Structure formats: structure tokens, C-alpha cells
Amino acid sequence: MKLWGVAMARNEADVIEAFIRHNLTVLDGLAIVDHGSTDATPAILAALSAEGLPLQIEVNTALEFRQSEIVTQLARRILATTDADFIFLLDADEFLKVPSRPRLEAALAGLPPGVHAVHEWHTYVPDFSRLLEPAALIRSARRVRHRLGPRFRVVVSRSFLQSPTLIAEGNHLVVRRIGAENYPKIQHARLTVDESAVAHLPIRSAAQFAAKIAIGWLSCLMQPGRAPGLSSHWRDSYGLLRSGKPLTPEMLTLLAANYDVPESERKPLDQIVFVDDPFFADIAIIHQGAARADALALVVQFAEKLARRVSDAAAGPPTQAAPDDPAPRDRRTADARPRPRGPGPAT
After folding, report:
1. Nearest-5° angle of CA 25, CA 26, CA 31?
2. Is the pLDDT at 18 greater than 80, yes or no?
3. What's the Rg (C-alpha) of the chain?
4. Are 273 and 257 in contact (CB under 8 A)?
5. Cβ distance 116 to 153 under 8 Å?
6. Which residues, in sequence order, are bridge partners of residue 95?
7. Is 27 left (phi over 0), alpha (psi -120 to 50) or beta?
């Protein structure tokens, strides 16, 4: 049986190497879309690919956060071009918890035809009180005991390739496309935690969190017609950033422990139970020097791209060059050309 993973990554230099090396201890290959990263993520991906790791790297420079569309297309390409039997949908801050690959394969092999799988999604919170290197930070993380019941990530079977379906935003389920309501209802089988689960490490530092939320929520705001409830945890955290409240270790712990929990249902730290449940593989991280990034620099770079998008949209399409022009011009530069002086209206 062949198992692949599919993920999107944007500015994940602090964790992308750990994500790849850990998950490849379980999976046979990983396909990753670099979603316009401006930190060291592209360089780290290139270095890992050069090692010969089973990676397929694509680049998508769109500013909008269209996760469902992007990962659906990528998952289908992997199913069409490889011998993958199942694809695990992951984010770049998620790590598979698989005690036994043979046990996992047996569980997947036992699924009825056309059925997809889901496995539990566990939130982990690292120790923010110390400045730790990436591997040590991940190993310091403890699991948050379920607050609102288990959440899930989806694992798609080969039936996904030919079906009128898509991966829902958030990678939680497979759903029917609009217009395919007559297609049979999508079925998901739940894997046990002894077969597979996902460790989610959404916050690793104040700088990483600030850049993730600022860029992520602005990307969501750029999408017309986006459902109001999607990424509401980004919206709420964006409001915190905008308020200027300091991201202290205590605040980061509180936010991480309540990640993806509606603001009205978040619990104070003294009501949250942390469990020692290590998951990280015995691997070495060698690109630590390139993993540090400045949150302000990342947000400014994204803001510059956004400003250029607005400017280009206002300028409209380039105009056709006149036959005697040495080079094409567009509407933004045409009015700036020197013009011969001559009689004109009185002022």
C-alpha cells in the first residue's frame, strides 16, 4: 500500500523541515504547495528536495487563501500520477501520530469501496517560557485534552479521483461539489487513535503567530463570497493583534490551548488539562539557521504584494504600443511621458 500526504505551506520556515522529515517516517511521499512564502521556506524545500527525499513541490503565488480549491486539485494530480492508495490531508504544522504502519494499512485496507477515512486532530502547546530550537520546542509540546469533543482530518481514497467531490476548507471532510447533489452521500470511516491521529502545533512563537494570523486573515478577507464562519479563529486572533495586546508566554499558551475554539467558548488556563503525549520522531533538524524570520518583515512583504495588486487592478490592462514606440507602455506610465510645450488654454 502507498500512502502520500498533501499540504499547503506559507512562511513555515520554523517548522517545515520537521514536518517533512517526521511525516516521511510514515508516508511514502509528500506533495507540498508553497503558497507564496517570502521567508526561508522555499530554500529549505529546495534543500530537502536536493537530498532526494520523495517530495513534489509546487508554487502558488495567489494572495487569496483558497485552500479547498488548491489541495483538491493537488490531491487529484497525485492520485492520477502516482500509485498512491490514500492521501493524508495535512497542514504544515501537523504531524502524523501512527504507532504502527502495518496496523494503519490494515485499517485502511478494510474500508469499503468509495469510503474515505478521518482521524482525530489533537492540539499541542509547546513551552513558551524558554527560547528553544525547533526540535526541542516540538518535543516540549503537550496535548490539550479535548474541550468540545474530537475534531478530525480527512484521508482520501482513490475513489476521490473520479468523483464530483472536493476537500472541504480546513481539510476536515470530503464533500460533494455544488451541482452534484444527486451523487451518493459521502461516507467517512473513523480511524482509532491506535491506528492514526494528527498532532497540531499551531503556535510556536510570538513572531510566527503574529505573521500567520495577520497574513492569513487578510488573505481570507480578499475572497469575495467567503462564508463568514470560515477561519473565525483567525478573525478573532486578528482582532487581538490589532488591539496591540502583548503576546506574552501566558497569552500564547492560552491562545494555543484554545486554538480553533469559538471565542465565546474558550476556557481560562486553570481549566485546561494538558497531557504528556509525545509524538515527534527521532530525527535531526539541520536547517535551523535559516528558520528565523521577522514577523513585521513578512507582513510588510505581503502588504506590498497586496498594494501592487490594487494598483494593477486600478490601472487596467496594458495599452497596445504605437508602431514608433521603442517599448510598450501601460496606462500607469503613459501620462508621465514628457510632452512638447505649445499653446494651451490660459490659466
Report:
1. 95
2. yes
3. 23
4. no
5. no
6. 199
7. beta
Q: What angle do CA 31, 33, 38 make, to 5 degrees?
A: 135
Q: Domains of the chain, with CATH numbers?
A: 3-304 (3.90.550)
Give the DSSP per-residue string, 266-308: ---GGGPPEE------S-----GGG----HHHHHHHHHHHHHH
- pTM (predicted TM-score): 0.86
CA distance 32 to 56: 6
The closest of 64, 66, 60, 114 to 86, measured between CA atoms, is: 114
Residue entry with cell 504547495: 33
Map grid coordinates 492508495 to a residue.
85
Residue 244 has pLDDT above 60, yes or no: yes
Residue 156 three-state SS = strand
User: What is the pLDDT, as a whole number, of residue 290?
Assistant: 54
What are the grid coordinates assigned to 148, written together? 468540545
Q: Which grid coordinates are listed for 70?
A: 488548491
User: Judging by beta carbons within 10 Å of its beta carbon (0-12, 13-18, 19+), is residue 277 exposed, middle or buried?
Assistant: middle
Residue 269 in grid coordinates: 488556563
Residue 225: Cβ within 10 Å count = 4
Task: Quickly tell me which residue has 467517512 as its cell.
Answer: 188
- Rounded Cα gap, residues 173 and 176, in angstroms: 10
Size of the chain in residues: 347
180 half-sphere exposure, CB direction, 13 A CA radius: 14
